[in-house]
Amino acid sequence: MLASLAALRPRQLASQILSFALVLSTAFMLWKGLSLVTNSPSPIVVVLSGSMEPAFQRGDLLFLWNRSPDAKVGEIVVYNVEGKNIPIVHRVVRNHQGGLPYTKLLTKGDNNHADDVELYARGQFYLNREKEVIGSVVGYIPFVGYVTIMLSEHPWLKTVMLGIMGLMVVLQRE
C-alpha cells in the first residue's frame, strides 16, 4: 500500500486532495443553501427517540420548513431548548398570542403522557415560536437517519469511515 502511495505523482495527489475538498465544500454549500431556502438553521434532522411514535420512528429523517409565522395545533415542530444541544421533535398541543408579537406554543410527544414543560428551560412554560422553533416537519424518509444515530452512539465509527474515505481518495486512479 505504501508503494502505491509513493507511486502517486505530486500532481495526481494534489488533484485527488482537491477533489475531496470539492466534495466537502459542495456538501457544505448545499447545506447552507438549503438553510437559507427553508429559513432553518437545521433543515434536516433525525428522530433520536420514540417519543413521537407512531407518527415517526427512531431513525426517521425529517425535512423542515420555517417560513410560516405561526404554528397550528397538531403541527409537528422541531425546537431547541436553552442549555440542550439536541433538537426535540414534538407536536403543538396549544398556541396563543398572549398580546405578544410572537406566538407562544405548548408541545407534547405523541407517545408521552405529559406535555413538554419539563423539557423547556427552567421557569419556561411555553416556547417562543420565533426564537426556539427551528422548523415545522414537511416530509420524512423512514429509517435513513440510523447512520447518524450509529455514528453518534459509536464515535469510533466516524474515525473508521473518515479513514476509509481518505484512503479511497488517495488510492483512486483516474
* Second-tier CATH architecture of the domain at 44-146: Ribbon
- What strand line-up does the widest sheet have? 1-2-7-3-4-5-6
Uncertain parts:
none
Estimate what percentage of residues fall within beta strands.
Answer: 15-25%
- Average pLDDT taken over every residue: 87
Radius of gyration: 21 Å
Write down the secondary-structure element order.
Answer: HHEEEEEEEHH
What's the level 1 CATH class of the domain at 44-146?
Answer: Mainly Beta
Characterize the overall form: elongated
CATH topology of the domain at 44-146: Umud Fragment, subunit A
Q: Specify the biggest β-sheet.
A: 7 strands, antiparallel
Structural class: alpha+beta
- Cα distance spanning the termini: 17 Å
**Quantity of strands, as a count:** 7
- Helix residue percentage: 25-40%
Number of helices: 4
